[in-house]
Specification:
Blueprint: H1 27-41, E1 45-47, E2 51-55, E3 60-64, H2 66-73, H3 75-92, H4 96-104, H5 110-115, H6 119-130, E4 142-143, E5 146-147, H7 150-159, H8 170-180, H9 183-197, E6 203-205, H10 210-225, E7 234-236, E8 240-243, E9 258-263, E10 286-290, E11 293-299, H11 318-328, E12 333-338, E13 341-346, H12 363-374, E14 377-382, H13 388-398, E15 410-414, H14 423-426, E16 428-430, E17 439-441, H15 444-454, E18 460-465, H16 472-484, E19 490-491, E20 507-508, E21 514-520, H17 531-534, E22 538-542, H18 546-550, H19 569-581, H20 589-608, H21 615-631, H22 637-652, E23 657-659, H23 660-674, H24 682-698, E24 700-702
Helix pairs in contact: 2-9, 3-7, 7-8, 10-11, 12-21, 19-21, 20-22, 20-23, 21-22, 22-24, 23-24
């Protein structure tokens, strides 16, 4: 019921002084905002093109329409605050017996538990009302033996979250509160402001402190290629590593501008404190390649922010680093100085099917990638040795990103027959570890989830190989639940992540940038999936043709090495997936109506036999159709029916199983739908034919 107000995803975005535009709102929107202000204040208000004036009880408030931009920055946070305020106003305010719970702090009373049955919701409401500083900033709702207004609390929470002076902008909190009560208007303002602002998603402000700015730049290029593009300029000495800037073809004056960038372990600077007690290096350790040797080093904290001019040398100059990066990484990002601050502009990449390596030039690959874009849970099934694990691994390698600690954004885990609970997935608390102190035993999957939470702009891939060697429901039920409600964190007894030192323990957020792929073989050693598992995934069956299999006799067998995509492509893939999941679709109404008509006929048939599909299936089919459109170079009737065919095959047929009496007639009717109107759904028709053949032979058939 109540959101976690500490959730990173809902925090107001940082104010970027470069993007405080003169918002010129449309006339229609201008009138709507004016009506809201007049109604809320019961007084005079007027919204002009770029400014507004409101008469309150005592005086006038003047503000620019840039405040609407600030309101947009706070929109997610305001949406999370509103249910708290609404509940307090409707269920607690004015009811003395309920207010008394908070005055007396009688939080264990049966009355309070009846009022808010869920324990987590009770804890969050207590923190909201009493203003737990770690949960939310601002004033307490309880003021002696009375309660402050929700509007007052709303303003104090918001104004502590964004960098504007409280005294000069108290009315901004009121404005955001009024908009939160009108979500449609708030969303309209958001769309108009963002349209005027342009795309700022791929821009980040670098730290103002010179040494921190240098570190942020170094960390970014290390993530891209571990300094490979500039490694030829390294000069390795006994205690330090520098970048030789003596000849840059006019980019920099001749000289020694990056004299001792990195300290080596043999240097006295390498330890946290040098002999004079001053820290001279950052804590992070880098590993760079130099003439075939792997060298450990740490970045110096000693940087100069002055101009790079002839004669002023012998130190580490931030501007020299920026100029080199802008030259050697110009295809990835550009660093610009604006109003005395540095900004890093990532060059936005697109995820394009035609840019994929030849290894992905197959209908199976296209269906697999489209399925991932539509929903981050895909099951790959088929005979052993058909390439299910290979394609999932190769695609993860193609979108591979290695973080500053050398960790990849993908993981393959082989499921074992002894996986009888979720300990192999989510770990467990071991009270005997560390000589009885106890610690949480983290699995590789937990560590991957933590990295995904730390890097929300990058996709992470978890590949569960031979997923059905054990009962999936026994070890994976928690995962299935959290996939559907990603804003609901895992509750893990004894778990504590690196951010939990002074906060809540036991909670691990489920990352929306995590993609889960399960490979499935069917034989006497494996278990069947339940319908609830199949319903949550796209099921892609790998079945190579006869010629493809037999042609292997005449070709050399070799493992294809996948080269990671250019920087930015992985982020582009995730960005496209999020857009599709949030409802983006370029399929026109007429085409979507054709999709609706086909699945109406399919629904009518399956409903009669108890295999009808529900909201989630329809939503995910629509997302798949939209993803197929995004990946297709053209979008004619043939592509529409191909996508319909694939979704009938991957979302509807996998759940059908039974004997001849249960599913025989249904399969006949579905087969007829596949061949109606001359628009044959070939893949689904072929699968139905196989299921009917099995039904005739053994009186029972299933998809897998």
């Amino acid at each position: 019921m109540f959101a976690d107000l500490m959730d990173k995803e809902i925090q107001p975005k940082s104010i970027d002084v470069r993007h405080l535009p003169e918002i010129e709102i449309s006339d229609g929107l201008k009138n709507e905002i004016q009506e809201v202000l007049e109604k809320e204040e019961s007084n005079y208000a007027h919204v002009f093109g770029r400014t507004a004036v409101v008469q309150t009880d005592k005086n006038y408030v003047f503000f620019s329409n840039q405040w609407l931009y600030l309101a947009v920055l706070c929109k997610k946070y305001a949406e999370a605050l509103k249910p708290y305020g609404d509940f307090f106003d409707n269920e607690i305010r004015g009811k003395q017996d309920r207010l008394k719970i908070f005055f007396s702090k009688d939080y264990e009373s049966s009355q309070f538990k009846e009022l808010i049955p869920d324990e987590t919701d009770r804890e969050r409401m207590i923190k909201f009302v009493t203003s737990d500083p770690q949960f939310r900033p601002g004033k307490s709702l309880i003021n002696g033996e009375s309660a402050r207004s929700t509007k007052d609390i709303f303003g104090s929470c918001v104004l502590k979250k964004i960098a504007v002076p409280d005294a000069s902008s108290a009315y901004l909190g009121n404005l955001i509160y009024y908009l939160s009560k009108r979500p449609e208007l708030y969303s309209t303002i958001e769309a108009e402001v963002l349209q005027q602002l342009g795309d700022t998603e791929n821009t980040s402000k670098l730290p103002s402190v010179v040494k921190d700015c240098a570190k942020a730049i170094v960390d970014n290029i290390y993530k891209i290629d571990r300094f490979e593009r500039i490694s030829k300029r390294f000069e390795v000495m006994d205690q330090n590593i520098k970048i030789n800037t003596s000849n840059t073809d006019g980019l920099l004056p001749d000289g020694n501008w990056l004299r001792y960038m990195f300290a080596r372990p043999s240097s006295g600077m390498y330890s946290p404190k040098s002999s004079d007690g001053k820290t001279r290096v950052f804590e992070n350790e880098y590993v760079l390649s130099f003439k075939g040797e792997k060298l450990k080093c740490k970045l110096t904290t000693e940087w100069v922010g002055g101009e790079v001019v002839e004669g002023a040398q012998g130190n580490n100059y931030l501007q020299a680093l920026i100029k080199l990066v802008n030259r050697y990484y110009s295809d990835v990002f550009e660093i610009k100085e604006e109003s005395g601050e540095y900004y890093l502009y990532f060059l936005k990449k697109e995820f394009l099917l035609e840019e994929l390596p030849n290894s992905f030039d197959s209908s199976f690959s296209r269906r697999y990638i489209t399925s991932l874009l539509a929903k981050p849970f895909v099951i790959l099934t088929g005979n052993s040795g058909t390439g299910k694990t290979r394609i999932s691994k190769q695609f993860a390698e193609y979108l591979e990103v290695i973080d500053i600690n050398g960790e990849k954004n993908w993981l393959i885990v082989s499921v074992g027959a002894d996986w009888t609970d979720n300990a192999r997935v989510l770990g467990f608390y071991n009270p005997l570890a560390d000589n009885g102190i106890g610690k949480y035993e983290k699995t590789g999957i937990i560590k991957l989830i933590e990295r995904a939470n730390d890097n929300p702009e990058i996709p992470y891939f978890l590949i569960l190989d031979e997923m059905n060697l054990s009962h999936v429901e026994r070890y994976f039920s928690d995962f299935l639940s959290h996939m559907e409600t990603p804003d609901n964190p895992f509750e893990l007894d004894g778990y504590r992540n690196k951010d939990d030192e002074n906060g809540v323990t036991g909670k691990l957020p489920y990352p929306e940038n995590l993609f889960v792929i399960g490979t499935v073989n069917i034989d006497e050693t494996t278990y069947m999936f339940s319908p609830k598992v199949l319903d949550r995934a796209n099921v892609v069956e790998f079945k190579p043709g006869k010629d493809d299999v037999l042609n292997m006799f005449g070709s050399a067998s070799r493992e294809v090495k996948i080269t990671p995509a250019k920087s930015g492509v992985a982020e582009a893939f995730l960005r496209l997936a999020k857009e599709i999941r949030s409802g983006k679709s370029r399929v026109d109404e007429q085409q979507m109506e054709e999709v609706r008509n086909m699945f109406t006929a399919i629904y009518d048939i399956t409903e009669k036999n108890g295999y009808e599909f529900a909201y989630r299936t329809v939503k995910e089919i629509k997302q798949y159709i939209s993803a197929a459109h995004e990946l297709s170079g053209q979008w004619a009737d043939a592509e529409i029916y191909r996508a319909i065919d694939e979704q009938l095959l991957q979302k509807v047929l996998p759940k059908i199983h039974g004997n001849r009496k249960e599913i025989g007639t249904m399969l006949d009717e579905l087969e007829a739908v596949c061949k109606q109107n001359g628009k044959e759904l070939e893949l689904s028709g072929r699968k139905i034919e196989q299921m009917k053949g099995k039904l005739a032979a053994v009186q029972y058939a299933s998809f897998i």
